[in-house]
């Protein structure tokens, strides 16, 4: 299970199995989406993702809107305007058509909200007991605007690390539904399409260096991947991390680090330090960025490592998640 968790085991699987097997056929840079130059100055972003969340319906969403929003967001992390999506279903024999219909309705509604079209797809059915309800794969294509150059290797010392709002909400929402946990207040998934928020950031004219949506493995995995790809360090300020009380309580109860819990509607932005205030103003003015804040700084020290300054004045290493903290979360 850990190999699908988006942490260190996932990275090792890619580095030591897939990339050597693919050889020169593999893309030179690994990000949320691939940016492809198709000539005449046109660049396309292309991404694919699979969704196996359990349960299929959870507070604030379902596997249907999660699949659309997840792929839209992967395209948006390269600055692309998402245009077209595919939708492929793997169904377990015996799955209720009413459930499948509800998932399809959610996908259609999410696609309309995001302004993308579902243009191709596939359906397979496996024997009862060979699957678990419904699995969904979505791929997406978008257009990258001229002059936008965003990638995991562009983080530089002195850059500000920003996040668009509360972290860990999606993971705790799914977990609370799955395990029947209650935290005194409703916790709903933050699943949402982020390309509008990204467009607002780019409209400031800032040279945005890196964008990531911290899904599997949470903020910790995303920042560690950025630090490794760019050869820099990242220093977080623990008291500045936007962890809502229900998420903090759930993580304390279950022994989880909120930084390693999945999100589905948040964006990490790495921008030049001098532009941080301007970018934050644009984020907070957008409906999906009202809780945006600066959480850290890119540094030249300890390259490839993320650390957090604690409230007691010390520091702790924020490592890449090793396995799967919360399996089947997205």
Structure description:
Helix 2 packs parallel to helix 3 (97-114). The protein has 330 residues and is of the alpha+beta class. The radius of gyration is 19 Å and the shape is globular. It has two domains: 28-144, 2-Layer Sandwich (60s Ribosomal Protein L30, Chain: A), CATH 3.30.1330; 160-317, Phosphoribosyl-aminoimidazole Synthetase, Chain A, domain 2 (Alpha-Beta Complex), CATH 3.90.650.10. The chain is 30% helix and 25% strand. The protein is built from eight helices and 14 strands.
Distance between the termini: 13 Å
The largest sheet is: 7 strands, mixed
Sketch the topology as an H/E string, one letter per element.
Answer: HEEEEHEHEEEHHEHEHEHEEE
Task: Using the CA coordinates, give the radius of gyration.
Answer: 19 Å
Percentage of residues in strands: 25-35%
Shape designation:
globular
- The CATH homologous superfamily of the largest domain is named PurM-like C-terminal domain
In total, how many beta strands?
14
| Neighbour order of strands in the largest sheet | 9-11-8-12-10-13-14
Estimated structural class: alpha+beta
Number of domains: 2
Organism: Streptomyces doudnae
Protein name: Hydrogenase expression/formation protein HypE
Pfam families: AIRS, AIRS_C
Family: Belongs to the HypE family.
């Amino acid at each position: 299970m850990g190999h699908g968790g988006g942490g260190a085991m996932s990275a090792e699987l890619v580095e030591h199995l897939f990339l050597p097997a693919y050889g020169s056929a593999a893309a030179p840079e690994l990000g949320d989406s691939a940016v492809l130059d198709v000539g005449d100055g046109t660049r396309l972003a292309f991404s694919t993702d699979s969704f196996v969340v359990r349960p299929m319906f959870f507070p604030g969403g379902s596997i249907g809107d999660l699949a659309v929003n997840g792929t839209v967001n992967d395209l948006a992390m390269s600055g692309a305007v998402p245009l077209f999506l595919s939708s492929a279903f793997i169904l377990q024999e015996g799955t209720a058509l009413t459930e499948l219909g509800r998932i399809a309705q959610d996908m259609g509604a999410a696609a309309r909200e995001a302004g993308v079209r579902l243009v191709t797809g596939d359906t397979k059915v496996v024997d009862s007991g060979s699957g678990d309800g419904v699995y969904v794969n979505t791929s997406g294509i978008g257009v990258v605007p001229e002059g936008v150059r965003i990638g995991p290797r562009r983080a530089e010392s002195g850059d500000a690390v920003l996040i668009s709002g509360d972290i860990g909400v999606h993971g705790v929402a799914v977990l609370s539904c799955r395990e029947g946990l209650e935290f005194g207040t409703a916790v709903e998934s933050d699943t949402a399409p982020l390309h509008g928020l990204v467009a607002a950031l780019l409209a400031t004219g800032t040279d945005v260096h890196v964008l990531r949506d911290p899904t599997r493995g949470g903020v910790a995995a995303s920042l560690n991947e950025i630090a490794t790809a760019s050869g820099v360090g990242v220093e977080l300020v623990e008291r500045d991390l936007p962890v809502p009380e229900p998420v903090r309580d759930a993580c304390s109860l279950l022994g989880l680090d909120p930084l390693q819990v999945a999100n589905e509607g948040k964006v990490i932005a790495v921008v030049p330090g001098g532009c941080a205030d301007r970018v934050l103003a644009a984020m907070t003015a957008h409906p999906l960025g009202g809780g945006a804040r600066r959480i850290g700084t890119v540094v030249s020290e300890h390259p490839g490592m993320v650390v957090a300054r604690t409230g007691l004045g010390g520091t702790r290493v924020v490592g890449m998640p090793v396995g799967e903290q919360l399996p089947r979360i997205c």
